[in-house]
Amino acid sequence: METAIALVSGGLDSVVALAKGLEIYDVKLMLTFHYGQRAWPQELKASQAVASHYAISQRVIHLPWLAELLPKALKPKQSAFPQSELLEDSSLLGLPSSHNIDPAYTETAKVWVPNRNGVFLNIGAAIAEAYSAKIILFGANVDEAQGFPDNTQEYRDYVNQSLSYSTLVNVQVETPVGELTKAEIIQEGVRLGVPLEKIWSCYEGSEIQCGVCPSCKLLKTALASCDKPVSIAFGND
Description:
There is one protein chain. The protein has 237 residues and is of the alpha/beta class. The radius of gyration is 17 Å and the shape is globular. The protein has one domain (3-76, 112-224): HUPs (Rossmann fold, 3-Layer(aba) Sandwich). The chain has a five-stranded parallel β-sheet with strand order 3-2-1-4-5, with helices on both faces. Mean pLDDT is 85; it is low at 79-106. The protein is built from ten helices and five strands. The protein starts with a strand and ends in a 13-residue tail after the last helix. The chain has helices spanning 12-21, 40-54, 64-67, 90-93, 103-109, 116-130, 142-145, 153-166, 182-192, 214-224; strands at 3-7, 26-34, 57-62, 135-137, 172-174.
């Protein structure tokens, strides 16, 4: 069985991607990234629960420098989710003034961490090669690919082209849920017996998922379309 590592934040997509990967790979290690995000305590708790559930070793990678580049919506809690702070950091992203920005781009930009997935995947590739693993499991998905270009299959393919030059063993990224919607990912999670009650997809770091941030809204919409009930609690329910 081919050896793999998995990038796991503790959210729906990365956890189900891990579970699907376990069907065909020997997953030796989970990587979880701490980069100053507001939800870190809950992400750590969720990812640790997943590592324990699947009896997989976990390594936490600390990236304090990336915290300096976070948008306000993801920085450690200063107020409730900043609905009015859409693009106050837009100058850092090289974006045009807010009145010229496409609404879809605005939604992406307010929670965009510059080149986050690029950083994660390259770190993952280095660790994978050191572990003699040729596969990195990454939780990209169809719904988020609509707003986040680094969730697309094209992005994965270009990263793999690059890794074919930068790794001697030709490490490659696989996206087990890359062609699935959130609703389909939940259905796969149910099929695979994933402990979905343990996931954390919220941008906030409260005791319960807020239910109103963009990530929670996507998850709630997906849950509403599922045939089988899934026990995930939200603060505004």
